[in-house]
Amino acid sequence: MPLSPYLAAVSLLLAAAFSSGWTLHAAAELPRFREAPAFRNGPGCASAPTIHIAMTLDATYLRGSLAGVLSILRHSSCPESISFNFLATRPRRFRPAVSASFPSLSFDVYRFDPALVRGRISSSVRRALDQPLNYARIYLADILPRSVHRVIYFDSDLVVVDDVARLWATDLSPDHVLAAPEYCHANFTSYFTDRFWSDPVYPDALNDRRRSPCYFNTGVMVMDLDRWRAGGYTRKLEAWMEVQKREARIYELGSLPPFLLVFAGEVKGVEHRWNQHGLGGDNVEGLCRDLHPGPVSLLHWSGKGKPWLRLDAGRPCQLDALWAPYDLLRRDGRDDLFADI
Questions:
Q1: Which spans in 122-178 are helix H?
Q2: Which terminus of the chain has fewer Cβ atoms in its 10 Å neighbourhood, N or C?
Q3: Closest CA to 221 of 260, 178, 263, 261
């Protein structure tokens, strides 16, 4: 029996929507979040520089991203001088959620095209590391406007408990492209496969560095985008991704190893307090971990275990309580923000 013209039109519309990768009622699928307090500049902010921060937005980590934003604003002496640059595969889906929680926030949402990494991603030890948006940090210099000369990149599973202006003030002179906390006690060789180390050519890429290559976590980075663009670093990272995909399996950990191959030994060191990472445990089990010794300016739940998932499951780790006060997820009958602080 032939379809009526109306049903035929609806069928065509649905077919077009799904073939384009749309999801019906996408906005309704996102959780509801509370509005955060308005944070204002304190005395002495008239001459404060604009601090550019980059983060990603997706449905899985949106709750973490918004918690991170709230933590940054709450501890900043000049919160109105912070400009957020978000990357998302579907900006129009996430812009309303950010605006609703932070009506006065200075921000833009830029589209990250997954096609940029199509054919360059290989499977890793954890599925989350294989998502295209995990590689968006590689393309910040290409996506953000040329007027953005420097940016702090933050992962979506962290909270800042210090004034981010202190991290922004990191000195990248004379010619550093990237600054991050380094962990030279870590076994650097373990981040690459035996196939990499046995190759007659690949390890030579780590020679002639300023210092011996050390591990650093790419969830917290201060990046000079002008030097990045001038040095063609996006293409250098892509080249290693193509080696991994087409020539030999040289690593297992998503977007991290290409950064190590390009920048390890050339990174401007930052105090460890700015990335107390690993609070999500390892990439397999995500077991609870303690803080590293020393002061703390940033808590980072890198690894499999995310605080919002463990809290929702009723099986939180002790340190997850430090993330909970920044959670903007709306719950019926519980809208008193910072009540638990």
A1: 140-143, 164-168
A2: N
A3: 178
Phi, psi of 320 (to 5 degrees): -65, -25
Distance from C-alpha of 51 to C-alpha of 151, rounded to nearest angstrom? 7
Contact 58, 67 (CB under 8 A): no
Confidence category of residue 16, pLDDT binned at 50, 70, 90: very low
Contact 77, 49 (CB under 8 A): no
Beta bridge partners of 180: 269
Buried b (16+ CB within 10 A) or exposed e, 169-186: ebeeeeebbbbbbbbeee
Lowest model confidence (mean pLDDT) among 133-147, 264-278, 283-297: 283-297
State pLDDT tens for residues 286-333: 789 999 899 999 999 999 999 999 999 999 999 999 999 999 999 875
Q: Check residue 24 and give its pLDDT.
A: 39
DSSP 56: E
All domains of the chain in start order, with CATH: 51-326 (3.90.550.10)
Q: In sequence order, which residues have a C-beta less than 8 Å from that of residue 194 and are 6 or more positions away?
A: none
Report whether 280 contacts 259 (CB < 8 A): no
CA 104, 105, 106, 112 torsion-angle sign: negative
Cα–Cα dist 216/257, whole Å: 10
Tell me the whole-structure pTM to 2 decimals: 0.88
DSSP-derived secondary structure letter, 219: T
Q: How far apart are CA 328 and CA 326, in angstroms?
A: 6
Amino acid identity at 156? S
